[in-house]
Amino acid sequence: MDQRHLRENRRHGTPEFPLGTYLQVHVDSDTILDNHWHDEAEFLWVMSGQAVFQIGLAIYKLSEGEGMYVPGGEVHGGYSLDFSPCTYKAIVFHMDWLTEARDGISTRFLQPLQRGDAVIPSVFGRKTLWGELVLRHLNDIYRLFESEDSAKELRIKAELYSLFADLISHNQWTRRDPAHAVDTQTMDRLKGVVSYIESNCGQPLTVPKLAAVAGMSVGHFSRVFKSFMRKTPMDYVNHYRILQAAYLLQTAKISVAEAALEVGMDNFSYFSKKFRSIYDCTPTQFRKKFRSL
């Protein structure tokens, strides 16, 4: 993921085979998955250790043998528990791949899930039969993806259909509670704020201005933003600005001062302090490291 943006712009797989698999190993790291969202759906499961994951406002502590499902468009992230190690795998795929047939199966079950009119459990694990089945399918998909099987795309698609079929047959597919629409509307507003930040990070940004973009009062906006993003609005703005500055220092012939001003930070002492807190080096050291490559 390009961490300069909340919306992930990476393509998972190819247009013909829109699925990607990922293995993440984290040791001594606070944030193990930056908050982000993408149009694709995602299954993530913990192989070892434990961590806290977030989908929207919901917080889940996951340990080995447990996982979660993230619908397309949902903001999600992950955080360590006391800096303890955590290894997890993820499968990211576009639901269009499964619903393109537009047959009865798609219109009854998968399209409602894709639209958000229906839901499956956010968390699963070995404690239930259906959770064990989901994990089995996911591990088979991961294994197939890494294999040289000439028919692996077909087998993987069949595994995904079987996974959803097992959830449906075990009564884990349900119509969404209309009350959830409130959370969805709030998330859409926050996505608009984040897009505004990304487009205007070089300009003066204040909490009242961002609250106005969201159409909320300052107090309500600040509470909701921190609940979803796990950062205050200005902490998020400054974090994004530092990531953007780091990108400029890597890719453009630009001085440290110019990079700071470009992203809207004219207090160079504060800029250097925030930069060091993220990259564990000064902006100048960071720039020299990439200039020497």
TrEMBL record:
Pfam families attached to this UniProt entry: AraC_binding, HTH_18
Source species taxonomy: Bacteria, Bacillati, Bacillota, Bacilli, Bacillales
InterPro entries: AraC-bd (IPR003313), Homeodomain-like_sf (IPR009057), HTH-like (IPR037923), HTH_AraC (IPR018060), HTH_AraC-typ_CS (IPR018062), RmlC-like_jellyroll (IPR014710)
Keywords assigned: DNA-binding, Transcription, Transcription regulation
Protein name according to UniProt: AraC family transcriptional regulator
GO MF, one annotated term: DNA-binding transcription factor activity
Domain of life: Bacteria
HTH araC/xylS-type domain: residues covered: 191-289
